[in-house]
Automatic annotation (TrEMBL):
Coiled coil: none annotated. Keywords: Lipid metabolism, Membrane, Sphingolipid metabolism, Transferase, Transmembrane, Transmembrane helix. It is found in: Membrane. Belongs to the sphingomyelin synthase family. This is Sphingomyelin synthase-like domain-containing protein.
Amino acid sequence: KIRTAIEPEIEMRTVYRRSPTSSYEKLSLDGSDEECSSSSMEISTPPPSPLWLGARNRGVEQWELGKVLFIVSFFWLSALSNWAVLAYTHDFAGWEPMPDIVFKFVPEIQIAHKMGDYFVTSSLICLVLLIVFHKHRLIVFRRMVFIIATLYFMRTVTLLGTYLPPSYSDNARRCREQHANFSLERLGVRMFEQAIRFGMQDETGKLCGDMLFSGHTLVMMVCMLTVTHYIPKKWRLLRFFPYCFTYVGMACMIVSRRHYTIDVVIAHWLTTFVFTSYHAYIESDQFSDRRQSVFHSYAYFRLIGWLEANIVPGRLENVFESPSEAVLALLGVKPKESAPREKLGVEKIV
């Protein structure tokens, strides 16, 4: 809903559109478009946060400090909770692998273990490149961190609720020795080992028991869905790479027996649901549409609404931009204008 401070006879022929970068365009029905300042209109959007930092310039999104700190804290709490649960469940998970439909027909392929790690790394590279070159990179980055944190929190709940035994054919050789008695000191040491390695483990002597929800599949799916959703249309053929990395990587997770089939399936379903529902909620055309949505009755989506309160509803404009332009804009440096064509020895066309 937009109200303009102009004459009634002109008001019916003019609408205003605001982009995610807080620039306004006046769209006239006669085809003439021009930019205008926010002082000439009143928009029924929530008031800006008091933690709003600086001004947007040349497509560089503002960071809201309080929300960023919340998202980062949520991410690290989710990661720490995953490592804590793994450190705990290792001593209580069974040692005999469970039957699996894929294991019944496909033998364990150990080389697929490393291949799966390579595909995870390749998917992350695709995600990083997208965020670096996307015009609204900070918005995309903030959304992805929050979604990943949400999924890792859900993974913590599943790991803590049910202890599945490792799926290797030689669990006794691959996994560390189990201890019958719980030790808080041992738990802290294991968590510290996980933290300094950011969740990565050695091939032998590893902590086992983090089944039921594949973390590798979670990461690859988020990368694939993000690239698919935010890549510009003219670059859409590049979506083939994250698709390939993700689904081949998921197959590697199973045939290497790093995860059961159900682990990968659950991770695929939950990641797709969280990513899709998040964007279905925030990409409503109006803030009022969000409040009328069935999602709004859940506290989680009201939290998302708070995080997205100062971002214009609707889908982001997917455009690539050199990261150097964003850096210059943050520093307040104006890019050098190119010399006139006549000074470059090119004849001016009239």
